[in-house]
């Protein structure tokens, strides 16, 4: 099993090979910051020799780069302070990404073999690397985790010294990595290089990374075939991702009755989320949605408001009713004339 140690992750270089996406990791504690790398290697059906390697990297909730082995340009930087990082930094990162692509392909092929998986199926091997630092810039947590076909495979424990494997088959990798003292390498990486890179991004991108975009919130009303209704509370265009949406009925939390989706990227650097509750028709005014976010001076409280009364609609309705009544009267008169 090839060790996941691309050149750009060696202690002598700045890191930058593996990337981590928001929504795919646990959020760091309040006041802390995170650097995430996630690399994915995919094997299309019947094309085991043609493996694609892609990577993304995030500082907090801001994506800083993406990489795709199938694209000519390979790597793309996504932050305005990229030039300030220096040409050598991004050159090392690109070289490391390109070099790692070959290692990642071998890792996936090895996992397919030891799990006796069919070569003509589609498979995915993922590696997640990252670190969290506190307000003082010291390490809070380090990560080095792997998954095969969407399931846990092998991970470095919180002590950054020992491993946890998902099953007996993964023990093969665990024994090899213990013999190579690989945990010590990643412990050093998390405690030094990962922190150095994270703090550099935080310094150069402070204006963007430290911003707080408050959510734009509203409630939508959805009648259900069963006769009851769904109220959905939306929070849109907010940053960072940390947000809380709750529903209350007559002032009491409706935690168990609330359907809550994961926070999702909007595609423009902000995020969105919604929470929904179901209730009998006519009880909508008893429910309130509460939104808590760093960018709000105070929490929002929303109540669904029925569409405003429309005089035009009433007039049209009265006119139509008059037409119907007139037609009915005319029909009755004509029938009476025929009968006489």
TrEMBL record:
<keyword id="KW-0490">MHC I</keyword>
<dbReference type="GO" id="GO:0030670">
    <property type="term" value="C:phagocytic vesicle membrane"/>
</dbReference>
<comment type="similarity">
    <text>Belongs to the MHC class I family.</text>
</comment>
<dbReference type="GO" id="GO:0006955">
    <property type="term" value="P:immune response"/>
</dbReference>
<keyword id="KW-1133">Transmembrane helix</keyword>
<dbReference type="InterPro" id="IPR003006">
    <property type="entry name" value="Ig/MHC_CS"/>
</dbReference>
<dbReference type="GO" id="GO:0005615">
    <property type="term" value="C:extracellular space"/>
</dbReference>
<dbReference type="GO" id="GO:0098553">
    <property type="term" value="C:lumenal side of endoplasmic reticulum membrane"/>
</dbReference>
<dbReference type="InterPro" id="IPR011162">
    <property type="entry name" value="MHC_I/II-like_Ag-recog"/>
</dbReference>
<dbReference type="InterPro" id="IPR036179">
    <property type="entry name" value="Ig-like_dom_sf"/>
</dbReference>
<dbReference type="InterPro" id="IPR050208">
    <property type="entry name" value="MHC_class-I_related"/>
</dbReference>
<dbReference type="InterPro" id="IPR003597">
    <property type="entry name" value="Ig_C1-set"/>
</dbReference>
<dbReference type="GO" id="GO:0042612">
    <property type="term" value="C:MHC class I protein complex"/>
</dbReference>
<dbReference type="InterPro" id="IPR007110">
    <property type="entry name" value="Ig-like_dom"/>
</dbReference>
<keyword id="KW-0391">Immunity</keyword>
<dbReference type="InterPro" id="IPR011161">
    <property type="entry name" value="MHC_I-like_Ag-recog"/>
</dbReference>
<dbReference type="GO" id="GO:0001916">
    <property type="term" value="P:positive regulation of T cell mediated cytotoxicity"/>
</dbReference>
<dbReference type="InterPro" id="IPR001039">
    <property type="entry name" value="MHC_I_a_a1/a2"/>
</dbReference>
<feature type="transmembrane region" description="Helical">
    <location>
        <begin position="313"/>
        <end position="335"/>
    </location>
</feature>
<dbReference type="GO" id="GO:0005102">
    <property type="term" value="F:signaling receptor binding"/>
</dbReference>
<feature type="domain" description="Ig-like">
    <location>
        <begin position="215"/>
        <end position="303"/>
    </location>
</feature>
<dbReference type="InterPro" id="IPR013783">
    <property type="entry name" value="Ig-like_fold"/>
</dbReference>
<dbReference type="GO" id="GO:0009897">
    <property type="term" value="C:external side of plasma membrane"/>
</dbReference>
<dbReference type="InterPro" id="IPR037055">
    <property type="entry name" value="MHC_I-like_Ag-recog_sf"/>
</dbReference>
<protein>
    <recommendedName>
        <fullName>Ig-like domain-containing protein</fullName>
    </recommendedName>
</protein>
<dbReference type="GO" id="GO:0002486">
    <property type="term" value="P:antigen processing and presentation of endogenous peptide antigen via MHC class I via ER pathway, TAP-independent"/>
</dbReference>
<dbReference type="GO" id="GO:0042605">
    <property type="term" value="F:peptide antigen binding"/>
</dbReference>
<comment type="function">
    <text>Involved in the presentation of foreign antigens to the immune system.</text>
</comment>
<keyword id="KW-0472">Membrane</keyword>
<keyword id="KW-0325">Glycoprotein</keyword>
<keyword id="KW-0812">Transmembrane</keyword>
<dbReference type="GO" id="GO:0002476">
    <property type="term" value="P:antigen processing and presentation of endogenous peptide antigen via MHC class Ib"/>
</dbReference>
<dbReference type="Pfam" id="PF00129">
    <property type="entry name" value="MHC_I"/>
</dbReference>
<dbReference type="Pfam" id="PF07654">
    <property type="entry name" value="C1-set"/>
</dbReference>
């Amino acid at each position: 099993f090839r060790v996941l140690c691309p050149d750009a992750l060696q202690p002598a270089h700045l890191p930058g090979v593996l990337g981590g996406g928001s929504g795919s990791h646990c959020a760091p504690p309040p006041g802390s910051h995170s650097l995430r790398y996630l690399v994915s290697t995919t094997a299309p059906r019947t094309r085991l020799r043609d493996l694609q390697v892609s990577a993304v990297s995030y500082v907090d909730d801001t994506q800083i780069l993406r990489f795709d082995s199938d694209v000519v340009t390979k790597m793309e930087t996504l932050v305005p302070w990229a030039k300030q990082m220096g040409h050598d930094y991004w050159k090392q990162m690109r070289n490391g990404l390109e070099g790692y692509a070959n290692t990642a392909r071998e890792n996936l092929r090895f996992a397919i073999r030891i799990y006796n998986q069919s070569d003509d199926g589609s498979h995915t091997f993922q590696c997640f690397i990252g670190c969290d630092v506190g307000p003082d810039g010291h390490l809070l947590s380090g990560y080095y985790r792997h998954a095969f076909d969407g399931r846990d495979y092998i991970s470095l424990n919180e002590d950054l010294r020992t491993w946890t494997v998902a099953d007996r088959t993964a023990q093969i990798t665990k024994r090899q990595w213990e013999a190579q003292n690989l945990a010590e390498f990643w412990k050093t990486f998390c405690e030094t290089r990962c922190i150095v890179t994270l703090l550099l991004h935080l310094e150069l991108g402070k204006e963007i990374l430290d911003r707080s975009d408050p959510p734009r919130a509203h409630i939508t009303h959805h009648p259900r075939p069963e006769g009851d209704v769904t109220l959905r509370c939306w929070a849109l265009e907010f940053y960072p991702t940390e947000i809380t949406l709750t529903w209350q009925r007559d002032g009491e939390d409706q935690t168990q009755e609330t359907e809550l989706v994961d926070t999702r990227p909007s595609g423009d650097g902000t995020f969105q989320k919604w929470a929904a509750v179901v209730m009998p028709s006519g009880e909508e005014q008893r429910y309130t949605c509460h939104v808590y976010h760093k960018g709000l001076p105070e929490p929002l409280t929303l109540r669904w408001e029925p569409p405003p009364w429309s005089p035009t609609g009433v007039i049209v309705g009265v006119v139509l009713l008059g037409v119907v009544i007139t037609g009915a009267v005319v029909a009755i008169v004509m029938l009476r004339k025929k009968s006489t």
